[in-house]
Structures are given as structure tokens and as C-alpha cells.
Design brief:
The complex is a heterodimer of chains A (370) and B (520). By secondary structure, chain A is mostly helical. Chain A has 13 helices and three strands. In chain B, α8 crosses α17 and α13 packs across α14. Classes of the chains: A mainly alpha (370), B alpha/beta (520).
């Protein structure tokens, strides 16, 4: 990066330079400060638009703290948690997968496919159905993510572009299915599939949804923590992401490590699709995901790719999405308000990462130069 | 070593005096004086890392000198950026071309040209280019796409870029490295022609015959300093090669042979090994070599003559194009690095910070780099036993005297010498080598670290382990090796026993690929 040098009066100038590595605690502090900044800046925008920022935030606080909302927050957070933890596998490998949304859609499609086949009498019902739905959604998401991984390894195709493009493919495939072959025959012409039967849902009716989701998320986060820190695969994926030269030298089979990591990434996003289609909506329909896969990208970065902190940042996004509905109903704030906050968080997260590596210093001009 | 550059009559167009530039770990330019006169082709000779490119990058405004003075046409100047340099009439052609393949020649040449209008008159500009192209007897069409041009033609486009900006001081960094011999001859004709027009040309190179055939004056740099500046006709290849590799006229004392192990096992045989380099050019052009247990086989050569590609092919980092690599009776050409390590080939890579460690990881994680997947560092379930890794890391750090804050601190905090100690210690303490391939293990290190690494290599020899040792430091090669193989232009041009190697022979072999006697 070119060095920035802003001359001040006299021989002084402000200089942007790389700073030595921050400790974990200080780095977390920087993240939190920039997060607070996102809320401040969004507040300023609300104020400018004529809404009371304080009113909005207090309504936000009340909605988040109300016990009835807690369950809704867990519901909305779970797909983000799963997808964001999945993305952490990719990002550790320096594989910039922004295709969680498409992988999630493929998961929804595959799970719905299982339901449709069951409806058509081809697949058996009962407890096996959930197992099939879980396997199908994870497999579909995983296979969807393997396409860009293989393209990158084989021909060097940029994964940012391929994963993004495959999002649209998956979303349009879902659209086609719900408008065409999988349209609910008893649905009065609505573009949607038949509802998921209880036995195909991760949290069947009768069980407290939030408890099931909490358990699934926690299991996913803890397993990932174990994989990242204590397995050979976790170690090798870190090496591959940090230094491709050293990983070649170390005899790591880079391609296979990337394939495995990205596969897991897609599988978790696919599983998130099962949560969305099975429980959050109950069926497949157009626009089933309000961008869970995209929010997961920010959540993974904000959480620093650590599965535990990623879970909490995903929870924050769950809160924002939930409160968006509430704010719209209670104080007539347009839904886009929440998008402003999310966009601000995205920007400040990137700024925070930059700030962790650089600092501004007032220096005397001319001297040094090395 | 400040010698005054002798003047060929006129006053210099560029004067660089007392230029110093240091980078972490290296003093790239150490009080360098360098003058350029109008109408000359000036060859700037030196091995890789001698500081010649740094010096020219300073003149071109890419680096700022730590100290020193630059005058252009008699006036002191500060060159803060290439833009400043071009304003002063200084232009540089880099080793790698900075062209846009999809654009035409004329578009590339005038891209970012300061006097270009918002709506350029392409036809006029094309005419301007045609005139220059014909003047030099080139054959490129201004309308053709740059992506379709040959390397030699791309170089002409780079020169055109400088010429239309009015540059009359042209710096060319290793311009022939990507050219065929015919293209090179063509280039030299162009350079001579430019000099006749009164332009000044600096040719950065490490090829002696180029310097001899095309230049009016020659400056030799070695280890950041100017060691010789002369009119080309007053010097000869022997003098230049000696200056370049650092042999003084009196010669070197060759230490006595040291006895290796008695029984020598043939460890590694290379037969007809050919390896591609990064630029798609054959880097190793058929090498036959044997390495025995209990010997240090030194590979001498000016760097860039295929040494790195050779060791990368032996260690599996790079796939050989053809030929055989036989390790202890087993054909291993093209095997994965992992397999070769398991067979007992341990590799100390060049550029330790790039290849040998992961700077962002802790010291102990770096110790696990190559062995995390093997017992005893990993259990049956694929979990890494970090406790054992830390234990081993403590041993490595202790025995090889790696100066670290703690085993948890990041490897990026280590100095170059400590990185090298860590790599060496890790490889010897965690793998079980039969053959150690060490590429430039002492490059850029201080004396203490260099001595330690040499001692480690000698101890390996005593244990009956074979050592393949690549270095461009001729003193070091002479000091350590039982046998010396000299590489030149992708071939082993001579294998000398310890007693047979005279520094003059080595110098001649390294710089021209022929022994002294053979040439005269």
C-alpha cells in the first residue's frame, strides 16, 4: 500500500503507517468501538431523515428485551449462525465465498425435494424423513459450494465471482420450481410448495423451537472450535489461508484442504436452508430468505472467524432483522432503517479491520524515509 | 570504497553521489557513486542482490535514498516518484512488462500520457509512433494488440512509452532475461543507436558477455558497493567476473579437505533432469548429479541460473519436465513434497520468511508446520497434541538458540537469522533426514547466524547425512563443500573436488560457464 502523507503546518505531517500487531483484547475493543460507531452513524442518519434516533433505539431495546421476542430472535439468528460459521471455514482458507445465500437456497430446495418426494409416495415418512432432509440439504449446499472450489483449484477462477453468480442460479432455480413443477396443487395458485410435514422439521411442533435451535447452533459452534484449534485439518487450513508457499513446502495437499473446508462451508449453509424452509417459513416460496446468507458474511467477519464470537455477531443480526418488523409496526419506521444499520456495520467492520493494521501518526517531515 | 568515476570527456547527465539505502537486514546501497554520461551505454553489472536494481529504482523515484545526492544535468534534484523521474527525462523498463494485453500498442503507449487530450487524435499519435518505429527499424504495428506481441516486441512498446515522453536517460533492468538470442541482438542494436542519438542507456545485467559486447562503460556492484568502474575497452571478462563474485587478485586460501564418513552411500542421482522456470522458460536444462551420504555437495553459481528450480524439483515443490530423480534406489521424480519428506529428504527453502514459516502463526505452530499430521504430534483421531508440539518447540528453540520472546509469540517478530535458526532447528528436530537440501540458508544473515548454520551443516555431514548446499557466496561454498558443482545457464558446467577448485576457475565457470584455460 502506498503511504499516505498529509502535510501540516511547519515540518509536521500526518502519516498513515502499519502498526504492530494488536493484542486480542485490544483488537476486540477496536471491533466493539467501530460497532458502536455504526449505531451512532445510523442514528445520525435517522435523525436527518426526521425520525428520533433515541426513540428508535429505545424501541429497539425494548423489542429485543421483551421475552416474546427472544424466541423470534433465536429463530432468525439460527440460519445466520450456521451459515456464518460455515463461511468461517472458507474465509480461514482465504477462499472468499460469498455464496452462502445460494448454498442456503440449494439446501432449501433439496429439503423441499425430500418433502415433495414423500408427498408423492416415493420416500417413506416417519423419523427417517428428517434424516433424509438433513442429509439432502447439507449435501446440496455442499455440492453447490464445491463447484466454485473446484473451478478455483482447476482453472483459477475467482471464487468471489463464481459464488456470487451461483447465488442467482440457485435463487432462480427455486423460483422455477415453486412456479412450476413443485407448485402446491392445493395452494390456490400461490407460488409456493406444499408445507413441510412435522416429521421433516428440525424442530417439530410441540418442542420449543428456540431450545432446538440453541442446541444445534451451540453444537455447531463448539465442534467448529474443536476442529479449528485441535485437528490437523484445522491447522492445515489455517496454514493454507495464511501462506500458500509455506503450505506447499509443508507438503499440505492444498487442493484437498480447500475442497474439504469449502464443502463444510456449503453444507452448513445448506443446513441453514433446512431451518429456513422447514421451520421459519414452513415451505419453499420465492424470497424465502431475506438475505441470511449475505448477513452471514458480515457476521463472520465481525466475529473474526471465531465460531463463538461469530455466533454472537450472528445473534446481533438476528436481533436487527427481528426488530425491523417490530419497529415498522410500532413506530412506523420503514424496514429499510434496519438495512441502514446493517450497511453501517458492514462498513465499520471493514474500517475496523483496516484500523487494526494501521495507525495515523504525526511525524516530522523529511527525516527517515526508509 | 569511493572511487571517482572517470569521465569520458563531457559532463555527466546524471550524478549519483554517496547513495545509501538500507532495507531491514540488508544494506542494499552503501555509499554508491554512479555517473551517467550523454551518448553512452553503461552496463551496471552485479549478481542478484548486489544492489544494482535498488540503485536504479532510486534514480527512477521508486525508492528514496537514506542519504546521498542526485544531480541531473548539473542541478540537484529530489526524485519522489517515477512521475518526477519522467519529468527529468529518466525512464525505466522493468523486468516484468507493465502493459495491458487487451489494448493496442498506441493505446498502451499513450495511456496516462500527461499531454493526452480528453479525445485523443489516435491517427496522429499512430503516425508519431510509426516514425519512431521505422527510425529504429522495428516491425511492430501500432494498431496490433499488445497481447499478441512477442516479448521482444513488448519491450519495444515499453521503450516507445519512454520515448514519446521525451526520456533520454533510459534504464533497462535485465532486459534480455525474457528475450531470445536474436531478439537480444536486435535490442543491443537499438541501444547502440540510441546512444548515437545522444541518449544515455543504463543496462542492468548480470551477464558479462552482454556488458562486454554492447556497453561503452561498465560499473560492477557487489554487496551494495561499487567495486569497479571502467571504460569497457580497458577491461576484460576475467577482471569483471572476478570483481563480480568477489575474488581478489591474490586468490583465496582453500581450506584443507575435511574428512567425511568412511562409507559413502549413493543417496541421490539426477539424470537428464529438466525443469521449467516460472516464466515458461526452461530453467534446468539437463542436469546429471550424484549426492553421497556424508558429503556436502556445494552448488555454486550466480543466482538465477537454475539452482532454485533444481532444488525445487528434488524436493517436490516443482514438477520436473523430464529426467530421472532417484533417491536411494527409488524413482521419485514428480513425487509430492510430503512423500519426499517421509523418504528422508529435508528441505531448507530459500527466502525463509516466504517459504519456510507462516509469520502470522506462533513459534510453536510453526514448529508443527510440516509434522502436525504425523505421530507423535497427532493422535489416532486426527487431533493435534499441542502439548507435545510445545515440548518439541522448546527443544528446537533451546538447541538452536532461537531468540524468541515466548513460544506463543508470532514468528513475524523474529529476525532473519532467528527465522533461519527456527527452520533449521525444526527440520532437524522433527524430521529424520538422510539428505538435507539447503538453498541459500545463510543469505542475508549476520556473521553469528551464518557461522552457526555452517556448523550445523558440517555436523550433519559427520553424521553421514548428505547435504546439498546452494549458495552464491563463493567463499562459503569453498569453505564447506567436499565437492562443488557449478551451475550456469541451467546446466552443471563443472564438478570440482575440494583440491581442484581454484577461485579463478570457479569465477570463470560461474560467470561464463567455461573454465579459464578452456576459454583462452
Amino acid at each position: 500500500m502506498r503511504r499516505l502523507n498529509i502535510p501540516l503546518a511547519g515540518s509536521l505531517s500526518i502519516r498513515l503507517e502499519r502498526r504492530p500487531e494488536l493484542s486480542r483484547a485490544r483488537s476486540a475493543l477496536v471491533t466493539l468501538l467501530f460497532l458502536a460507531m455504526a449505531f451512532l452513524l445510523s442514528g445520525a442518519i435517522f435523525q436527518l431523515l426526521g425520525y428520533g434516533a433515541l426513540e428508535i433505539y429505545s424501541a429497539f431495546g425494548r423489542s429485543v428485551l421483551s421475552p416474546t421476542m427472544v424466541e423470534e430472535i433465536f429463530r432468525k439468528s439460527t440460519p445466520i449462525i450456521l451459515a456464518a460459521i460455515g463461511l468461517s471455514y472458507s474465509y480461514r482458507l482465504n477462499f472468499w465465498n460469498i455464496g452462502a445465500e445460494g448454498q442456503l437456497y440449494m439446501g432449501m430446495i433439496a429439503a423441499t425435494g425430500v418433502v415433495v418426494l414423500n408427498y408423492g409416495g416415493i420416500l417413506p415418512g416417519g423419523p427417517l424423513l428428517l434424516l433424509l432432509a438433513v442429509a439432502a440439504s447439507a449435501l446440496a449446499g455442499g455440492l453447490w459450494s464445491l463447484i466454485p472450489a473446484a473451478l478455483k483449484i482447476r482453472v483459477g477462477a475467482n471464487e468471489i465471482i463464481t459464488t456470487l453468480m451461483l447465488n442467482y442460479t440457485a435463487i432462480l432455480l427455486a423460483d422455477y420450481l415453486v412456479h412450476g413443477p413443485w407448485k402446491d396443487p392445493t395452494g390456490y395458485g400461490f407460488a409456493q410448495t406444499i408445507p413441510f410435514p412435522p416429521e421433516a422439521k428440525l424442530a417439530p411442533p410441540g418442542t420449543p423451537e428456540w431450545a432446538v435451535f440453541l442446541a444445534v447452533s451451540a453444537a455447531c459452534a463448539l465442534t467448529t472450535l474443536l476442529v479449528f484449534n485441535y485437528t490437523v485439518f484445522g491447522f492445515e487450513s489455517k496454514v493454507v489461508g495464511l501462506n500458500p508457499y509455506a503450505s506447499r513446502y509443508a507438503g499440505i495437499r492444498t487442493g484437498s484442504v480447500v475442497l474439504k473446508g469449502v464443502l463444510i462451508s456449503g453444507m452448513l449453509a445448506g443446513l441453514a436452508g433446512l431451518v429456513v424452509a422447514g421451520n421459519l417459513i414452513g415451505r419453499l416460496r420465492p424470497g424465502a430468505s431475506p438475505g441470511y446468507g449475505y448477513h452471514a458474511i458480515i457476521a463472520a467477519l465481525l466475529g473474526g472467524l471465531n465460531p463463538i464470537t461469530v455466533s454472537f455477531s450472528s445473534l446481533l443480526f438476528g436481533m436487527l432483522l427481528t426488530s425491523g418488523d417490530v419497529l415498522q409496526a410500532s413506530i412506523q419506521m420503514p424496514r429499510a432503517g434496519v438495512k441502514i444499520i446493517i450497511a453501517m456495520i458492514f462498513i465499520t467492520t471493514i474500517l475496523a479491520e483496516f484500523w487494526k493494521r494501521h495507525r495515523l501518526r504525526i511525524a516530522r517531515r523529511g527525516g527517515g524515509g526508509g | 570504497m569511493n572511487m571517482s568515476p572517470d569521465s569520458p570527456g563531457s559532463s555527466p547527465v546524471v550524478e549519483m553521489r554517496g547513495i545509501c539505502k538500507s532495507f531491514p537486514l540488508v544494506l542494499a546501497n552503501d555509499h554508491v557513486d554512479f555517473f551517467i554520461y550523454p551518448g553512452e551505454v553503461h552496463a551496471l553489472l552485479g549478481e542478484n542482490g548486489a544492489g544494482k536494481t535498488t540503485l536504479m529504482n532510486i534514480l527512477y523515484g521508486i525508492y528514496r535514498p537514506d542519504s546521498g545526492l542526485i544531480k541531473v544535468r548539473g542541478a540537484p534534484v529530489t526524485i519522489g516518484s517515477p512521475r518526477d523521474a519522467i519529468r527529468l527525462g529518466i525512464g525505466m523498463v522493468h523486468q516484468d512488462f507493465r502493459l495491458i494485453d487487451g489494448h493496442s500498442v498506441v493505446e498502451n503507449v499513450f495511456l496516462n500520457h500527461p499531454e493526452l487530450n480528453f479525445l485523443p487524435r489516435w491517427r496522429e499519435l499512430e503516425g508519431e509512433l510509426r516514425a519512431i518505429i521505422e527510425g529504429y527499424g522495428w516491425a511492430i504495428d501500432p494498431r496490433s494488440r499488445v497481447g499478441q506481441l512477442s516479448p521482444g516486441e513488448k519491450q519495444q512498446v515499453e521503450l516507445l512509452k519512454l520515448l514519446v515522453r521525451g526520456a533520454d536517460i533510459l534504464l533497462l533492468d535485465e532486459p534480455t532475461s525474457v528475450l531470445t538470442p536474436i531478439e537480444s541482438r536486435m535490442l543491443f542494436k537499438t541501444l547502440r543507436r540510441m546512444a548515437e542519438e545522444g541518449k544515455s542507456v543504463v543496462l542492468i545485467t548480470h551477464k558479462l558477455n552482454e556488458a562486454m559486447s554492447v556497453s561503452d562503460r561498465v560499473t560492477v556492484m557487489r554487496k551494495g558497493r561499487v567495486v569497479l568502474t571502467k571504460p569497457t575497452r580497458e577491461t576484460n571478462i576475467e577482471e569483471l567476473s572476478a570483481a563480480m563474485v568477489g575474488i581478489n587478485a591474490s586468490g583465496l586460501d582453500i581450506p584443507l579437505p575435511q574428512t567425511g564418513a568412511k562409507e559413502r552411500e549413493l543417496l541421490l542421482s539426477l539424470r537428464g533432469l529438466r525443469v521449467m522456470g516460472d516464466k515458461g522458460v526452461l530453467a534446468v536444462k539437463g542436469v546429471d548429479l550424484d549426492v553421497y551420504g556424508g558429503e556436502i555437495l556445494g552448488i555454486a553459481g550466480v543466482s538465477g541460473n537454475g539452482q532454485v528450480e533444481l532444488v525445487e524439483a528434488i524436493t517436490g515443490i516443482r514438477k520436473p519436465l523430464s529426467g530421472r530423480v532417484i533417491f536411494r534406489g527409488v524413482e521419485v521424480a514428480g513425487a509430492m513434497p510430503r512423500k519426499l519428506m517421509e523418504l528422508g529428504i529435508t528441505y531448507i527453502p530459500p527466502e525463509g520468511k516466504k517459504w519456510g514459516i507462516v509469520p502470522e502463526l506462533s513459534i510453536y505452530e510453526n514448529v508443527a508446520l510440516r509434522v502436525a499430521r504425523y505421530p507423535p504430534f497427532t493422535g489416532r483421531l486426527g487431533f493435534v497434541r499441542w502439548g507435545r508440539v510445545v515440548e518439541r518447540a522448546r527443544k528446537v528453540v533451546g538447541e538452536f538458540r532461537v531468540e524468541v520472546g515466548s513460544l506463543r509469540s508470532k514468528a513475524s517478530t523474529l529476525s532473519g537469522g532467528n527465522v533461519q535458526r527456527l527452520i533449521l532447528g525444526r527440520e532437524l528436530e522433527t524430521t529424520n533426514p538422510r539428505l538435507v537440501v539447503a538453498a541459500y540458508p545463510t543469505k542475508g544473515l549476520d556473521i553469528a547466524a551464518t557461522e552457526q548454520i555452517k556448523r550445523v551443516l558440517m555436523r550433519l555431514r559427520e553424521r553421514g547425512i548428505g547435504v546439498l548446499f546452494v549458495s552464491e557466496d563463493i567463499d562459503e561454498v569453498l569453505e564447506l563443500s567436499d565437492r562443488i558443482a557449478v551451475m550456469y545457464d541451467g546446466r552443471v558446467v563443472g564438478v570440482l573436488g575440494r583440491g581442484e577448485a581454484s577461485p579463478e576457475d570457479l569465477g570463470a565457470l560461474m560467470s561464463r560457464g567455461v573454465a579459464v584455460n578452456a576459454s583462452s
